Amino acid sequence: MEVGREIFWNIALGWLTYLVMGVAVLILAYNLYDRISLWRRGQEENRWDSVGKRIWGVILYVVGHARVLKEGYPGVMHLMIFWGFLILLLGAGVDAFNHYSGLHFLKGGVYLAFSFILEIAGLMVIVGVVMALWRRYVTRPSRLDSRAEDAWVLILLGAIVVSGFLVEGARIAAQGNPWERWSFVGWTLSGLFGKGKGVLLFHKALWWVHLFLSFIFVAVISYTKLLHIITSVLSTFFRNLQPSAIRPIENMEEAESFGVSRWEEFTWVDLLQLDACTRCGRCQDNCPAHLTEKPLSPKEVVQGIKAVFEQETAPILQRMRTWGVEKKEEEEGEEGKTLVGGVISEDAIWSCTTCGACVVHCPVFVEPYPKLIDFRRYLALMESRFPQEVQVAFRNMENNSNPWGIGMHTRADWAKDLGVKTLAEDRDVEYLLYVGCAGSFDDLNKKVATAVVKLLQRAGVSFGILGTEEGCCGDSARRLGNEYLYQIMVEQNIEVMKNYGVKKIITLCPHGYNTLKNEYPQFGGEFEVYHYTEVLARLISEGKLQLIKPIEDSVTYHDSCYLGRYNGLYEEPRKVLGAIPGLKMVEMARCRSRSFCCGAGGGRFWMEEHLGTRINHARLQDVLESGASTVVTSCPFCYTMLSDAIKEKEVEERLRARDLAELVLEATEGV
Amino acid sequence: MGGVWVYAEVKEGAVKKVALEILGEARKMASSKGEECCAVLVGQGVEGLAPRLGAYGADKVFCVEGEDFARYTTGAYTKALYDLVQKEQPSILLFGATLNGKDLSARLAARLGVGLATDCTEIGLDDAGNLKVKRPMFAGKVYADVAFSDAKPQMASVRPNVLTPPQPDESKQAEVVKVDVEVTPEDKGAEVVDFIQVGGGKVDLTEAEIIVSGGRGMKAAENFKILEELAEVLGGVVGASRAAVDAGWRPQSDQVGQSGKVVTPNLYIACGISGAIQHLAGMGTSKVIVAINKDPEAPIFKKADYGVVDDLFKVVPALTEEVRKLKAEG
Amino acid sequence: MNVLVCMKQVPDTEAEIRPTADKTAIDYTGIKFIMNVYDEYAVEEALRIKEKMGGKVTILCLGPERATEAIRTALAMGADDAVHLVDPLFEGGDAYATAKALAKAAEKVEYDLILCGKQAIDDDLAQVGSILGEFLKIPTVTGIVKLEISSDGKKATVHRQVEGGLDVIEVPLPAVFTASKGLNEPRYPSLPGIMKAKKKPLQTLTASDLGLGEDEIGAKGSHIKILSFSLPPMRKEGKIVDGETPEEKAANLAKLLREEAKVI
Question: Which domain holds residue C247?
Answer without folding.
Answer: 233-264
